[in-house]
Amino acid sequence: MGTGDPYTTITEPTFVARFLLDPGTDIVDAVTSVDAFVDLPDGSTWSLTIFTVDEVGRLLARWKNTGEVANGSYFWAVDQLIVPEPGIPAMTAAIRELVRSGDITSAGSRCKV
């Protein structure tokens, strides 16, 4: 991650995942929600918004108390991916499987070139 670079980048043989974290952040192993871009060898890029199960529950509870989103009666996000535990390693594992299975094209949104 370079100076001023907003991405934490994970490079694997079948994809490059760029997680949009605050520069200089130390929450790589604890992040519970993040936007990510997944670059494939074919030149396509896919966007995902990744949440942990606990983060979704936390947001619903907060919205119930604040009255937002019909008192927390639902949760949605464009191109969302829900993972069981926090951290970039867990999120990368999920992306790895999405790429391996080909489901990245259904779960993510293709970015325009």
Characterize the largest beta sheet: strand count, sense, and whether it forms a barrel.
Answer: 6 strands, mixed
Q: Write down how many β-strands occur, each being a DSSP E stretch of 2 or more residues.
A: 6
The share of residues in helices is 25-40%
Q: Stretches where pLDDT falls below 50 for ≥5 residues?
A: none
Portion in beta strands:
25-35%
The total tally of domains equals 1
Would you tell me the structural class of the helices and strands?
A: alpha+beta
Elements, N to C (H/E) = EEEEHHEHHE
| Average pLDDT | 92
Terminal Cα separation, in Å?
23 Å
The rough form would be described as globular
User: Helical region count?
Assistant: 4
Mind explaining what this structure looks like?
It contains four helices and six strands. The chain is of the alpha+beta class. The two termini are 23 Å apart. It has one domain.
Features of this protein?
six-stranded mixed β-sheet; 113 residues
